[in-house]
Amino acid sequence: MAGVQQAPAAARREREQRGARLELIGLTKVYGDVVAADQVTLDIAPGEFITLLGPSGSGKTTTLMMVAGFVLPTAGQILVNGEDIAFQPPHKRNIGMVFQNYALFPHMTVAENIAFPLKMRKWSREQIRQAVREVLQLVRLPGFEERFPRQLSGGQQQRVALARALVFRPPVLLMDEPLGALDKKLREEMQLEIKHIQESTNTTTIYVTHDQEEALTMSDRIAVMNGGRIEQVGTPRELYEQPVSQFVADFIGESNFLSGRVEPGDGRFFLVTPEGWRVSIPVSDSVQPGDQVSVALRPERIVIGDGSGDNVVEGTIEEIIYVGEATKFRVRLEHGSWLTVKQPSRLETMRWRRGDRVRLSWGTADAVIVRDGSGESA
Fold first, then answer.
1. Which of 205, 220, 262, 373 lies in disulfide reach of 173, CB 3.0 to 4.6 Å?
2. What's the mean per-residue pLDDT of the chain?
3. Within this chain, do residues 109 and 137 fall inside the same structural domain, yes or no?
4. pLDDT in tens, 313-323
5. Are 187 and 275 in a shared domain?
């Protein structure tokens, strides 16, 4: 009985120990006059799933490739459990990698593809057979050993690529937009499946994507990149609820942006726009009366047809966009500016028509102070 009880504990300890601590310190890559990655610094806990999120050219893939060893850094360190691997060749880093195009060998079977990194590591035939069988169970592809990549769907190929990256139990797993080629429904299914597999193996993972919904769904934390630098690092909720800059607020979800001068009043702060519109905003130690600031206001935080919030404005609906579970309204305000409103597609929402005069309202806490594009505070 003691042996039966110890086995799960031993397996649990193995999972807990598998993930490595990964530290990127001042990681920089320069190509001529172009700084592709600029002082990228991240401390990734063992077993953490962190996503590098940003548009094309933001430096996320360059950063990933430096960790993988396919790109040598101009400066900086890459520490795996305290050991600097920044200039080690890729095959000595013991890091798993899933590429965007899967990079499966077309002339090899599923079993042979998965076994390839084990053969390179001189595992015995019995060790390979056992490891391949276990990892195929993990990715839910038992019985697919003798199939070739051309006989698999896109989702199945993706699972095989993940199995090959995990089969040698790497302490770190890197994934470069692996779901980009899949249709929306399958992509959403695979997001959850990858996350569940990562959690079950406790493998420290860096995932690269430009899809903000994908990042929000899968990540423990997200590093938003822009122009080679990290703009903000945080949990999905932190980044969505408290973006520090217009770039982050605009890239993750949608936002309305209002700019103006801070004025005090009744123990509160107000943002006074150039048109003279006074908006109640949160009191913050980072701003003082007289400062020029910007705030981000999420469209779903604005209530249409209700005048009970801290801020109430009137406008005319100029455009209605039905997107299934939600409806977007583009509302022109009296002073000529616009607000986008997003509401669940309920019966009361559907009664509005273009040209209707409406009241919009939101709370003080719904307006988040952010830096503008020039990096100015707010």
1. 205
2. 90
3. yes
4. 999 999 999 98
5. no
